[in-house]
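Researcher: Go.
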Amino acid sequence: MSTTTVTTNCALSLSAVSRNFGGIRAVADITFDVSHGRRITIIGTNGAGKSTLFNLITGMYPLSSGLIKIFDQDVSNQPAHNRAQLGVARTFQTSKLFQGLTLRENIFVALRQALGIKKIGWLANPSASEDLQLQSVEILRKVDLLEKAEVLVSDISHGESRQLELAMALAMKPKILMLDEPAAGISPNERGRLIELLKELDKEITLILIEHDMSVALSVADEVVVMHEGSIFLHGSPDEIRNSKSVRELYLGSSGE
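Model: Structure:
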């Protein structure tokens, strides 16, 4: 995705980031830094502003106010594709997979997108892109999907779809990987494997994820940001969050995740 050289230890910096929708402040004065290679989980009850914050970081929504820097470059007013060129890749709550293609072909699409190749005639000419084919196989191996390489996406489980989404994001060769609820709807066994996959990610990749499943959120994070009503409620280590009476009260007093 990016050839930008990392010259700063700060991968992402947010300063007083805010977003209003009409008269409603969805995100209010969010400030925190993410060091290069750190794993940050953003949690919070429904409507806390987590996905809106993701959309602000990736450039899908414009800021109402505040400052966003990626590797010390001010991207506050930059479109999403400029941020992607700096190495930002994300997954979404809802699937963005190509259901009529195989798993390998989905990875191949992502690899070509990372190179800026938009034409899709490659399906009929695999010999012209042998290196990308080999990369596709290796990425599927990393996420334990190699045995399903030639299976259509429409024929795999929901958990396998989430693994494939992770694989496609990795195909973009991200420096900052943003995952939006990667454990949503998956089985306990799949959840355990997801935790392993996230822990096995290259330590050069900065990981930021939104997650409702606390077993995932607290297992993979170096730091946890708890959001509530658009603001930071608490920012600390997994142990600090796990042992926080105020966080427990916040969740118990809500309508749930």
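Model: Residues 1-7 have pLDDT under 50 and may be disordered.
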